[in-house]
Design brief:
- The complex is a heterotrimer of chains A (about 160), B (about 800) and C (about 290).
- Chain A has helices at about 25-35, 90-95, 105-120, 125-130, 145-160; strands at about 5-10, 15-20, 50-55, 60, 75.
- Chain A is of the alpha+beta class and about 160 residues long.
- Chain A has two domains: about 5-80, Beta-grasp domain (Ubiquitin-like (UB roll)); about 90-160, DNA polymerase, domain 1.
- In chain A, strand 1 (about 5-10) and strand 2 form a beta hairpin.
- Chain B folds into three domains: about 5-35 and about 500-645, Aldehyde Oxidoreductase, domain 4 (2-Layer Sandwich); about 35-140 and about 215-265 and about 270-305, Aldehyde Oxidoreductase, domain 3; about 305-420 and about 435-485 and about 650-800, Aldehyde oxidase/xanthine dehydrogenase, molybdopterin binding domain (Aldehyde Oxidoreductase, domain 4, 2-Layer Sandwich).
- Chain B has a seven-stranded mixed β-sheet with strand order 3-7-1-14-11-12-13, with helices on both faces. A five-stranded mixed β-sheet of chain B has the order 9-18-17-16-10, with helices on both faces.
- The model of chain B has no long low-confidence stretch (mean pLDDT about 95).
- Chain B has 19 helices and 34 strands.
- With about 290 residues, chain C is of the alpha+beta class.
- Chain C has eleven helices and 14 strands.
- In chain C, the strands form four sheets. A five-stranded antiparallel β-sheet of chain C has the order 4-5-10-6-7. Chain C has a four-stranded antiparallel β-sheet with strand order 11-12-13-14.
- In chain C, about 55% of the residues are buried.
- The model of chain C has no long low-confidence stretch (mean pLDDT about 95).
- The chains are: A alpha+beta (about 160), B alpha+beta (about 800), C alpha+beta (about 290).
- Chains in contact: A-B, A-C, B-C.
């Protein structure tokens, strides 16, 4: 039997502990052991970004990270954006600007947009497109996603508590 | 006749047809709480991983399962031999062919399914799959469809070698599938013989793949105690899937439940019934536990329903004024190793004969010859409206070719040939009756919006400047689509008509639940169907819940593909709602003690004519309908179901214009501008429509500019992952400008047509036309897609465009 | 989709990492950012029995100026390079190159040391290192040695790094003030490997080229210094004639691998075109 590792980290602000083989990918741990099916799998070559989470303040493709590498990490997924029943400004903006259709890319896209606006609170359209280059979408053509991020930037600038 | 602002408020409250209502489905998606197939976890569930062939064409000499069976967590390994007892190692396809479920004795395309390993978890299943040992004897492969019908071509389908036909008429060669024709060849030939001008072009529509972000998969769960089968599956056609499963498995259809939950994009990729689904279902029946099978992205691109692969010849005959007299289009169709694409049973080439487009062409003939090759099966897919992408690509390309031959402006030639408004409904030379259209008005609106003449002047100036580092191209596409399959007299799948349905139940407190036979994969049905019903019933869309996809609950329908949801199920929704409203009218008359004819309907209530203060709202009637205060003999409830067999398909249309600037030295193309005007008749939700246009144009851009499924001579894939398969990011994707006109559909209950495939169908030729137009002044009449920088550079190189002058 | 099983080691010091590497030998692979290695393992193209994760070794990170050099720890991520004021200010060519790699998520994990060590001619850092005349510090059980970037790259997936060594530091001479620089990368879409790319670092003296380094990405089995092109430019102005010469000479050393990005003719021609554009952009930025 393959050796198991005990890994403890924080997921959306709560401590979690799992027992995994070294080869287990973070995306599988999140989805199958920790019942967080928000991040999705869209490819196996690290291109599509549907699996994007926020790990230690960085946007990361959780399909290309081993869970054993996450000891002590602070992991945020889409499920952690809503606080006390209040949607994050980014989630609200995606809804208002029709930035989603089938919803499959949305968790990764929204989680990436969250970090993008932390990196750059007032991005230009070009900066938004470049900042989302690691997240593919087949339904929306990105135009309303860009509008959603612009709208979220305005909302966050007006009410920083929503960040 | 109320006060108009009060009236307007009541209309607004409904958020019905025409409202840019924000989507109800968003609530779960933005929270990551969608329920997609890989989110499903059932007790005791096993995971299936498929072993696939590395060869495109080979005999299977042996399969050794022993090492796999000994691996930790592996429970079983299924091969064709394990499916033979239930006669499911082969399955019939809806196209009249048979398809291998697990390869028996030979494989016919690279990555074909050989075995499924069942294990206790995903990791063990993949480990097990890596341990299955298969011995192959490689055979020569056919990759080029032009080589499929030669005398010495290897026979791909030995299993049907003695079959004289596979569903569509006589076969002339073991690798021939069918030949299909439409129109009047003699009349067309005569038109060509007598024409002042003819043009001919060989035009390729390369093999591409819809590549939705979520790959295909299922969870099949058979309960041995009850004999009841549930299959959760990424299927755009849950009811047809259930019927086929009943036919294949022998289980009574009433004991099969198919559930389409949230689907991460379909685009036609999730219509076919794949071997993986069948093997998972058999595995569940045999083991009595749930079986999950989820394919990988590489599996998805390599084996599931591809699109296009039509090798065409387009010919037009015209007079000197550019009026087209005759059309002859033909296609060599590469269907891959099995004819398994989902098209209507009498239409093996789909709706290809819409290829006369928006034009009044008096004589037309088309022919499609389909062949087998050693590639994955498929053909009808990818927002194509059933081969309409192929048809419209041909006609819109040939309009430009004809314009260039005549030295005529590319907008002018279209105007000269449009079907005119007074000619509608217009029956084409192929027998399609175009319902409504206003093509010239659409084109003029676009040309004015972009200042077309100024663009042509700019292009002329750039062409005259030898130092200009770019080539400027202007592309047009004035397309007519055909969507909304379809009338039972025209098309069926396995004999089942392509009607659709809506069942409405109205609750006492004025809330509504409606179930339909379609299946959203992101199109926003929970919102748009609610809007239709809201307007018909006068109840707010916010209180109308829409359900699709669970075959135990939803009435029978043919699913969502070919932009059919609004034309067919949307019509059923309106009809069912009108049945409800008709009953409500009777109740209102009874309550107000007048005759039905004394009532008029206004937004959300019935008013007595001439005495408007006497009124009953629909909301009030909802409660009353559940009491005893009803007309004599009337049953309680406000429920209705409608099955809608459309009298015709619908014909949305559009006018698109694209401006490109091509770097002569790298071949890179910059889309400077894309203006898309669409007319889909009545617009239910402008926001949803705009989103569909953005998405369809982006997929069109991807197809035109970079997508292909390349093979080497042995049938090996050369670019079947997202490393190479071109999915544009937000960086490459152009900015889209959208516009519209409204020409209602005369035969649809609310005047609506489908729309979601229009941007793809109309967009692809628009991009192509723009690129080729950039070279038109140098005598270039056609360039095949994809217009990658590499291919465009090769054209620049061949024309000597990237030489620089020596300067001191 | 699923990597095969392996044993995982996360040493906390360089010494520990080197011991592990010695003990485990060829059955082990070093794990840096993981965004080249893990995808290969998921497709089972690589199946190492052991992974030695370098992420927890603090000594391998950090960016500092030291005696006219920029000294970068090998485990510094692309994102850290881009966020560094001293990189952006003193070695902007490095920032421009890093910004063209992959996408934001990959840049948060991908490391400069991993990009260099992988030996993939499609990676961007090797050409940047050649143009910057960088030196690599390789640490093994017997101690450190320094190897110039020029000559470090031997072939496809092959570098001067010995099996028991770890690349620990990259030392880049800080370009003199007034230098011009540019990394021109042609790609099918953002994030793709280069169809062709050229890194240029130059200094002008009035209108003539005083010094120039030209390095090519993905034009052969390794990154290449276009030395003949460089020599031809010395003392010349940047004009149509000198650009054509430089491009032609750069193209003459290309032996690109045909793939879905293009055939050898296209890739070679694009090498010429990127060289031209990099020289033009660098000259426009140069002052002095």
């Amino acid at each position: 039997m393959a050796k198991k590792h005990n890994v403890s980290f924080r997921l959306n602000g709560k401590p979690v502990a799992v027992e995994v083989e070294a080869r287990e990918l973070l995306i599988h741990t999140l989805r199958e052991k920790l019942a967080h099916t928000g991040p999705h799998i869209g490819c196996e070559t690290s291109h599509c970004g549907a699996c994007t989470v926020d790990c230690n303040g960085m946007s990361v493709k959780s399909c290309t990270v081993l869970t054993v590498q996450c000891e002590g990490a602070e992991v945020l997924t889409v499920e952690g954006l809503e606080r006390n029943g209040v949607l994050h400004a980014i989630q609200q903006a995606f809804h208002e600007e029709h930035g989603l259709q089938c919803g499959y890319c949305t968790p990764g896209m929204v989680t990436r947009a969250y970090r993008l606006l932390q990196e750059n609170p007032n991005p230009s359209e070009q900066e938004i497109r470049y900042g989302l280059a690691g997240n593919l979408c087949r339904c929306t053509g990105y135009q309303n996603i860009v509008k959603a991020v612009q709208s979220a930037a305005k909302k966050l600038a007006a009410a920083p508590a929503a960040a | 006749m109320g006060d108009t602002s009060e009236l307007g408020e009541r209309v607004q409250k409904l958020q019905g047809v025409g409202s840019a209502l924000l989507r109800k489905e968003d609530a779960r998606f933005i929270r990551g709480q969608g329920l997609y197939i890989d989110d499903i976890k059932l007790p005791g569930m096993l995971f299936g991983a498929i072993v696939r062939s590395p060869y495109a064409h080979a005999r299977i000499n042996s399969i050794d399962k022993s090492k796999a069976l000994a691996a930790p967590g592996v429970v079983a390994v299924l091969t064709a031999d394990d499916l033979k007892p239930v006669n499911l190692h082969w399955m019939p396809t809806v196209a009249g062919d048979v398809q291998a479920v697990l390869a028996d004795k030979k494989v016919c395309f690279q990555y074909q399914e050989i075995a499924m390993v069942l294990a206790t978890d995903r990791y063990a299943a993949y480990d097990g799959a890596a341990l299955v040992e298969v011995e192959y004897q490689e055979l020569p492969a056919i990759v080029d469809p032009k080589k499929a019908l030669t005398a010495d071509a290897p026979v791909i389908r030995e299993d049907i070698a003695d079959k004289k036909e596979v569903g569509h008429g006589p076969r002339t060669h073991p690798n021939h599938i069918f030949t299909w024709e439409a129109g009047n060849k003699a009349a067309a030939d005569a038109a060509f013989a007598g024409a002042a001008v003819t043009v001919r072009e060989e035009i390729l529509n390369p093999r591409v793949h819809p590549c939705p972000l979520e790959a295909c998969g299922c969870v099949a769960s058979f309960d041995k105690a009850t004999g009841y089968l549930i299959v959760y599956v990424t299927s755009q056609i849950p009811h047809l899937f259930r019927t086929v499963l009943a036919m294949l498995s022998g289980i009574a259809e009433s004991k099969i439940r198919v559930v389409g939950g949230d689907i991460g994009g379909g685009f036609g990729n999730k219509v076919p019934i794949y071997p993986g689904y069948v093997v998972a279902t058999v595995a569940s029946i045999v083991t009595g536990v749930p079986i999950k099978w989820i394919e990988s992205r590489i599996d998805n691109i390599s084996t599931t329903g591809f699109a296009r692969d039509y090798h065409c010849v387009g010919e037009l005959a015209a007079d000197r004024d550019g009026r087209i007299k005759g059309l002859r289009f033909s296609a060599l169709a590469d269907h891959g190793a099995f004819n398994s694409h989902v098209s209507a049973s009498k239409l093996p080439a789909g709706l290809f004969s819409i290829c006369t487009g928006s034009y009044g062409i008096p004589n037309a003939y088309c022919r499609v010859d389909a062949v087998y090759t050693n590639k994955a099966p498929g053909g009808v897919a990818y927002r194509c409206s059933l081969r309409v992408t192929e048809a419209v690509y041909l006609i819109e390309r040939m309009m430009d070719v004809l314009a260039q031959k005549l030295g005529m402006d590319k907008a002018e030639i279209r105007s000269r040939n449009f079907v005119r408004p007074e000619q509608f409904p217009y029956t084409t030379a192929f027998g399609w009756t175009l319902d409504s259209g206003a093509y010239q008005a659409a084109l003029e609106k676009v040309l004015k919006a972009v200042d077309y003449q100024a663009l042509r002047r700019e292009q002329a100036a750039k062409r005259a400047d030898p130092n200009c580092p770019t080539l400027m191209g202007i592309g047009l596409s004035t397309f007519t689509e055909i969507v909304g399959a379809g009338p039972t007299k025209v098309c069926d799948i396995l004999g089942i008509g392509l009607f659709d349905s809506c069942e409405i139940r109205v609750h006492p407190t004025g809330a509504v639940i409606a179930r339909l036979g379609t299946m959203s994969q992101g199109q926003g049905h929970a919102t748009t169907y609610a809007q239709i019903i809201a307007t018909e019933l006068g109840l707010p869309a916010a209180d109308i819940v829409i359900e699709e996809g669970d075959t135990d609950k939803a009435p029978y329908g043919a699913g969502t593909w070919g932009s059919r949801s609004t034309p067919v199920a949307g019509a059923a929704a309106a009809q069912a709602a009108r049945k409800v409203r008709d009953k409500a009218r009777k109740i209102a008359a009874h309550l107000l003690e007048v005759g039905e004819g004394d009532l008029e309907w206004e937004v959300d209530r019935f008013k007595v004519k001439g005495n408007p203060s006497q009124a009953k709202t629909m909301k009030e009637i909802c409660m009353v309908s559940h009491t005893g205060n009803l007309p004599p003999g009337m049953e309680q409830g406000l429920n209705a179901v409608a099955y809608y067999d459309p009298p015709n398909l619908t014909y949305p249309f559009g006018a698109y214009l694209c401006v490109v600037d091509i770097d002569k030295f790298t071949g890179e193309i910059k889309v400077r501008r894309f203006y898309a005007l669409d007319d889909c008749g009545t617009r239910i939700n402008p926001m949803v429509i705009e989103g569909q246009i953005h998405g369809g144009l982006t997929e069109a851009y991807a197809v035109a500019m970079g997508q292909q499924i390349p093979f080497d001579e042995s049938g090996n894939h050369l670019g079947n992952s997202l490393m190479d398969y071109f999915l544009p990011t937000a960086v490459e994707t152009p900015h889209w400008e959208t516009d519209h006109t409204v020409t209602p559909c005369p035969h649809h209950p609310i005047g609506a047509k489908g729309v979601a495939e229009s941007p793809h169908v109309g967009g692809i030729p628009c991009f192509s036309n723009a690129v080729i137009d950039a070279f038109a002044h140098l005598g270039v009449t056609h360039m095949d897609m994809p217009h990658s920088a590499y291919r465009v550079w090769q054209k620049c190189q061949a024309l000597g465009l990237n030489k620089r002058q020596e300067r001191g | 989709m699923i990597p095969p099983a392996f044993d995982y080691h996360a040493p906390r010091s360089l010494g520990e990492a080197l011991s592990l590497l010695s003990d485990l030998g060829s059955e082990a692979k070093l794990l840096a950012g993981g965004h080249s290695l893990l995808p290969m393992m998921k497709l089972r193209f690589a199946q190492p029995a052991h992974l030695i994760d370098l992420t927890r070794i603090a000594d391998l990170r950090g960016i500092r100026e030291e005696g006219g050099n920029l000294v970068i720890g090998a485990m510094t991520t692309e994102a850290e390079l881009l966020a560094s004021a001293v990189v952006r200010g003193k070695v902007p060519l490095l920032a421009e190159g890093a910004a063209s790699i992959a996408d934001p998520q990959v840049r948060y994990k991908g490391t400069i040391g991993g990009d260099i060590s992988h030996g993939d001619p499609g990676n961007d850092h090797p050409a940047l290192m050649l143009a910057l005349d960088a030196t690599f510090v390789l640490t093994g059980p017997k101690g450190k040695r320094s190897v110039k970037a020029d000559g470090y790259f031997l072939g496809l997936y092959a570098t001067q790094l010995a099996p028991e060594e770890i690349l620990t530091e990259i030392r880049i001479p800080i370009p003199v003030a007034g230098s011009g620089w540019s990394y021109q990368k042609l790609k099918r879409k953002t994030g793709d490997f280069a169809t062709a790319a050229t890194a240029v670092l130059l200094q002008m003296k009035s209108t003539s080229v005083a010094r120039v380094a030209i390095a090519l990405t993905n034009a052969g089995p390794t990154a290449l210094r276009a030395k003949a092109a460089e020599a031809a430019l010395l003392g010349k102005p940047i004009n149509e004639a000198s650009l054509q010469d430089a491009a032609r000479l750069a193209m003459s050393i290309c032996a690109p691998t045909p793939d879905q990005r293009g055939d050898a003719a296209y890739k070679t021609a694009m090498c010429g075109e990127m060289t031209r554009r990099a020289l033009q952009a660098a000259a426009a930025r140069a002052t002095g």
